[in-house]
Specification:
20 helices, binds FE2/S2 (inorganic) cluster, 571 residues, eight-stranded mixed β-sheet, alpha/beta, four-stranded parallel β-sheet
């Protein structure tokens, strides 16, 4: 089949002159336009995204690989999304970035792409955009930071931010200690080094087969990360030649492998939304029920924060994701024949993977925690579903009935949670509304509400919390998330009042508001839908078109793919 790039660079007319001549301004010789595969290196480098700060170097290694394999590499920037700075939440822009990626690939003379991904949302954004074009693509993750080191102990991104800020609020540590910890926690290039969303998504890349073996865990500053980037550069040229498009990799089987891998690593709940959104781009039917079903008999094998105690650096030295996938494969929990971008099946990649430390990566026979697949809840509070991550939750609260303490917005929560007069005890259920896709907007990571200081001081460490929000992958606790439909779309969550009884039963997959239908109808009649946060621009587009959490929170008109057609000439 004729390569796309030939329809730019292979032209012998005025258009060919235009397409080639301007490219030559930085010294590209004529022979680069001889029809060799043109590989886009999609870079999310940005000084506003600290986790991706080393991506210029990473791109250079991909380029070297592409050149070695006889390809023509062209690096290009796309919108980058950083969790730490971007307000109101990076998730608001995931779909926007995916549009940037999709249109940048399709509108340019590219035959395949290498996607440089790192901070949480950059991975799904780039994969979703590339999937809607469906050319060959390989994702290269930037890799985790080195372990945080504070006063002789390891500290992890996010996880210890939550615990130390609660210790500060409870008066157990000083502000000086907190500042010192800030400097100790993030001390190298790379993304969060807990099994948070970035590490989870890097693991999903590997488990889906869209990344090279080892992608999940090699530290960002380990030379082997650069070797992986170079290998990906070589390999993408081959994928273009053999026409292995992304949709040949992203099959239903690949997604089921990823779901099981997510359970086995104690991965982030954010993967649920991102994988559903990605699957829908390539036309694979993936639902919340698939998450519950495929993950049901899977145990957590990785002793990593936030579920356990180690960090990604330890995970890599212990064998990384290949060692986990091998355990799954040996226990009939992998589709072994799923194809991966290195040309081998997933099983071929991992069947001989060694484990060097059984305190970091447990065996399936003696798992770190049992039955840790994401549990999908239903009931009158969440007819379209809600989720809970059992590996991060308190077993004693998995069946619980309590009195609702309601916060209408996150500002309402912040305004009242420290009040010693707040009528709350450890048996209550904290309810947060209006933090879903439309409500926030962007479905912020605020579902793991900090506990009231008066209960922290009493030694309470966990309570049942429910919301339509997401939760940081580095967070933990008995937290029900992604309630669908969300409050801002008129879900039952909008109708919960202080003092209502709420019942959770994870075993039975139930979440119920114990209020009569009649009373709920009365409340619904008084409910007013919220207005769009802005009347113009991307926020308005997002508010009007975003789908609910159980559908992946994509924009309705972005679901599916348009393929890699070559647009008409530009002059
Ligand atoms: Fe970027 Fe955690 S803040 S990965």
């Amino acid at each position: 089949m004729k390569k796309r790039s030939v329809q730019w660079f292979g032209r012998q007319d005025i258009y060919g002159f235009i397409y080639r001549s301007w490219m030559k301004n930085r010294g590209i010789p004529q022979d680069q336009f001889d029809g060799r595969p043109v590989i886009g290196i999609c870079n999310t480098y940005s000084e506003l995204v600290p986790c991706n700060s080393h991506f210029r170097t990473l791109a250079d290694h991909v380029k070297a690989g592409v050149l070695e394999a006889g390809g023509f590499p062209l690096e290009f920037p796309v919108m980058s999304l950083g969790e730490t700075l971007l307000r109101p939440t990076a998730m608001l822009y995931r779909n926007l970035a995916s549009m940037d990626v999709e249109e940048s690939i399709r509108g340019n003379p590219l035959d395949g792409t290498v996607l440089l991904v790192g901070c949480d949302k950059t991975t799904p954004a780039l994969l979703m955009g590339a999937a809607s074009v469906d050319l060959p693509a390989i994702a290269v993750s930037g890799g985790p930071m080195l372990s945080g080191k504070y006063r002789g102990t390891d500290i992890g991104s996010g996880t210890n931010v939550w615990s130390m800020s609660e210790e500060l609020r409870a008066g157990k540590i000083s502000l000086e200690e907190l500042h010192e910890a800030e400097s100790c926690m993030h001390r190298s290039h790379g993304h969060c080094m807990t099994m948070g969303t970035a590490s989870t998504m890097a693991s999903m890349v590997e488990a889906l087969g869209v990344g090279m073996p080892g992608n999940a865990a090699i530290p960002a500053v380990d030379a082997r990360r650069n070797v992986l980037a170079r290998a990906a550069g070589r390999r993408i040229v081959e994928l273009v030649k053999t026409q292995v498009n992304l949709s040949k990799i992203l099959t239903k089987e690949a997604f089921e492998n990823a779901i099981r891998a997510c359970a086995a690593i104690g991965g982030s709940t954010n993967a649920v939304i991102h994988l559903i959104a990605l699957a829908r781009r390539v036309g694979v039917e993936l639902t919340l029920d698939d998450w519950d079903r495929a993950g049901r008999d899977v145990h957590c094998l990785a002793n990593l924060m936030p579920s356990g105690k180690y960090l990604m650096e330890d995970f890599y030295y212990a064998g990384g994701l290949p060692a986990v996938l091998r355990e799954l494969g040996e226990n009939r929990l992998l589709h072994r024949d799923a194809l991966t971008v290195n040309g081998q099946t997933l099983w071929d990649n991992v069947k001989a993977a060694p484990c060097h430390n059984r305190d970091v990566i447990f065996s399936f026979d003696k798992p770190f925690k049992e039955n840790t697949g994401i549990s999908v809840l239903r009931g009158n509070l969440c007819p379209d579903g809600a989720i809970i991550k059992p590996s991060a939750a308190n077993p004693a609260l998995m069946k619980h009935r309590g009195r609702a303490v309601v916060f209408e917005t996150i500002e309402d929560f912040h305004g009242r949670i420290d009040d010693p007069q707040l009528d709350i005890d450890e048996t209550c259920v904290m309810v947060l509304k209006n933090c879903g896709p439309r409500g926030y907007p962007g479905m912020a990571e605020v579902g793991n509400m900090p506990l009231p200081p008066k209960l922290l001081k009493k030694g309470v460490t966990d309570m049942l919390r429910i919301s339509d929000a997401r939760m940081s992958g580095t967070a933990y606790g008995t937290v029900v998330l992604h309630i669908s439909p969300e409050a801002a779309s008129g879900g039952t969550l909008a109708l919960v009042e202080n003092g209502d009884l709420i019942e959770l039963d994870v075993e039975r997959r139930k979440l119920e508001l114990l209020v009569s239908e009649k009373e709920l109808s009365r409340r619904k009649a008084k409910w007013q839908p919220p207005k769009a946060p802005l009347e113009r621009g991307y926020w308005k587009l997002y508010f009007d078109h975003v789908l609910q959490a159980h559908q992946g929170a994509d924009l309705d008109f972005l679901v599916g793919k348009s393929g890699a057609f070559v647009p008409r000439d530009n002059h």
